[in-house]
Amino acid sequence: MRRLPSSLWFVTWLGGFGVLGSLASFVVQQRQETAQQETHAQALTDGVVERGERAIIARQCNACHEIPGIAGARGAAAPSLGGFAARKTVAGVLRNDPVALVRWVRFPQSVVPGSAMPNMGIGDQEARDIAAYLYTLSPRPT
């Protein structure tokens, strides 16, 4: 195997740092965007994203829904919740705003009688936490 001349080796070595620097910058930017998204979602809902994630797991929402960020959430009996923050409606009938979303999460049968989504006895704060998590689910760039 031929060795690179020392000047080319040095340029290649520096190029590696450029790639690493770009990768590090990308990771930092993604974390900042995620933090901003969570802060915004929490301000909208008066909920806590992390508690919402735990509630979604505990309530086994993944049994019916595909939910980005939730391990094993590949349910197909109900709509995917991917890109939820950008949706115009909740359950196809309510405007997608925090009040309507909390109402839907708490009382889906009163919003759409006969819906496959059952009333699960979710309280107000837990519904706000779930809403906060859902509002972090923005569409992925294509």
TrEMBL record:
Residues forming coiled coils: none
SUPFAM superfamilies for this protein: Cytochrome c
Transmembrane segments: none
Cytochrome c domain: residues covered: 47-138
Keywords: Heme, Iron, Metal-binding
Pfam families, A to Z: Cytochrom_C
Protein name as catalogued: C-type cytochrome
